[in-house]
Write a structure and sequence with these properties.
single chain; alpha+beta; four-stranded mixed sheet
């Protein structure tokens, strides 16, 4: 499946638009991650723990969206938009959502 943030795919003609698809993932941070990240905040540098969590959430959301597009018979998704939010009490959870248009090329 081809995934693109652009509305068209260079070198391909979109034969059919199948509808909007989305993928959502909410992951909770835990005490250990928060503690480790607070040390990074204090001493400076990148938080590999949160970077890994963010990448994992994005990958899962994209896979979920891909799966939904596949059910529609799509072989590509165009116009993908990714959004990142913190949710829950104390903003302790990370939500990644993505939307795009399922198409057949």
């Amino acid at each position: 499946m081809i995934l693109s943030t652009t509305p068209q795919l260079e070198g391909h003609i979109i034969k059919e638009y199948l509808g909007i698809v989305s993928g959502e993932v909410i992951l909770g941070a835990n005490f250990f991650r928060d503690f480790k990240a607070s040390l990074t905040d204090f001493f400076g540098g990148r938080s590999g723990t949160y970077e890994h969590l963010l990448q994992d959430a994005k990958d899962k959301a994209l896979k979920e969206m891909e799966s939904r597009a596949s059910v529609l018979g799509a072989n590509a998704i165009v116009g993908i938009d990714l959004d990142y939010e913190t949710v829950g009490q104390g903003q302790s959870m990370l939500m990644v959502s993505c939307t795009g248009t399922a198409v057949r090329i």
